[in-house]
Amino acid sequence: MQRLRVGVIFGGRSSEHEVSVASAAAVLAHLDPARYEPVPIHIDRGGRWSLPERPPLESSARAVIEGARGPGAGAAEGAGPGPDEAPVEAHLVAHPRRDTIVTIRRESAGRGAGRRDGDGASGAGRDGAGAGGAGGGGAHPATVAGLALDVVFPVVHGPYGEDGTLQGLLELANVPYVGAGVLGSAVAMDKAVAKTLIAARGLPQVDHCVVAGPDWDADPGRVAARVEAALPYPVFVKPCNLGSSIGVSRAADRGELRRALARAREFDRKLLVEGAVADAREIECAVLGNDAPEVSVPGEIVPAGDFYDYDAKYLDDGSELIIPARLPAARADAVREMAAEAFRAVEGAGMARVDFLLAAGDDRIYVNEVNTIPGFTTISMYAKLWEASGLPYAALLDRLIELAQARHAAKQRLRTSLTD
Q1: Where are the alpha helices (DSSP H) in 174-245?
Q2: Quick one: which of 138, 145, 305, 347 is 20 to 30 A from 248 by CA?
């Protein structure tokens, strides 16, 4: 059986870059080598794509984050070229052909232009041909190779990866990919738009209001007054288009609200303010599937701090994950049904993690948000929820790749011309 070549795209121009590196390391380490040929594809913080000489090795988000903040920042990714290695640039060709990845390696004169392609041979890739650069002293010869991918597994969290932009490029390249499509990715990433779609399904959510960044820039006092007229304190303020609780703050008075809005504005042009749920329990479900989604057992997060912020998620060992969540059977079933409905509301596909708030006093359930590329390390909530539901990590990867192929095959059966 020929192995499937799986491109795992990670990194990206996002404040969730380090979390993405950890997710990719786990995926690459657990793809069955008898079934798959993994191809790590790194996007650095500046947006440059490359095929790393080594895959990322550290699947702990905490270790990657601390490595990025400490001396020799970036070395913990295990993805970039070493000091004596020439980078291999990667370019996704937005054209529906088999050779959906073109790689270009430039080397200084005297070192030779040969490279090792994805099949381990020097020169051109599986579907490409070598092309030498100009000769002469000081010239930089190049080898160009087409590297065909059978499926792409994107684990780029946040903007420019989870928001439909990367998915649009993959659609143009006509390559199967794991996860939601352009629309599902875009609307789930925008928390305000997602709330509109979830509300249209009749699913309960907390009271909220949306703040346009330019309105805040023009008159912060007026915006703060409008928020206070709409919502009682305390409130939570978030960038509309980020994950991992980045830029999220809790505000209990006017001063804290203004600081929270200013902080969120650093990350986004649109801000979301939500009413707080007193003594809320944080419940999460993992969803898997396309047209007939399956839902895992619910899990509960008990954060180390006041709420489940970035540090509590990745840096503080005090947070606790309880799987399955301590819920009565009927309540757990209701949460699972709501997770499937929220997934359908945003046109999810492949995978998503749906987060809920459960009011401790009266057990009311609120849909909080839908994450179409959740954290994907082996200890991330998404993977742990499926493991507790009887689907181990490696088998979960198999299912996601199968779902990507099935969705792509169904789209290929659609007509694209009136003359065919």
Answers
A1: 182-189, 191-200, 213-218, 220-230
A2: 347
